[in-house]
Amino acid sequence: MRRVVVVIASVAALVLATTALAGYQYAPPRQWSPGAGAGSSWSSTWLANWFGTYGGGTDKTVTFIKNTTYGWHNTKRGGSDYLETYAPYPGTFKAHCVAHSWFWGSCNVR
Fold this sequence. Notes:
The chain has one helix at 2-21, and strands spanning 24-32, 37-43, 48-53, 60-66, 72-78, 82-86, 93-99, 103-109. The strands form 2 sheets. Strands 1-8-3-6 form a 4-stranded antiparallel β-sheet. The protein is built from 1 helix and 8 strands, in the order αββββββββ.
């Protein structure tokens, strides 16, 4: 029972923290599984893309996808609670995030 309370409190804290920081949350807090991904809309004004998670050791990737070549740009992969990358300039890009392990987290772009 204590574990459930801790998980619920942690998710609530993550929601509040990411909502305060996020310009646009394109993947709300949820349980991620290996291979799961999400993407934002296309924009030429995105500045940064980040994946916020609860607990360390969560393997994930954040990147920007260009609208003409569909290539990945400024891709970062890591296991920290907060993983961020910055948009290349100029161009129109979509923010994208991918999970490589099981965890709770959300993806955001500003």
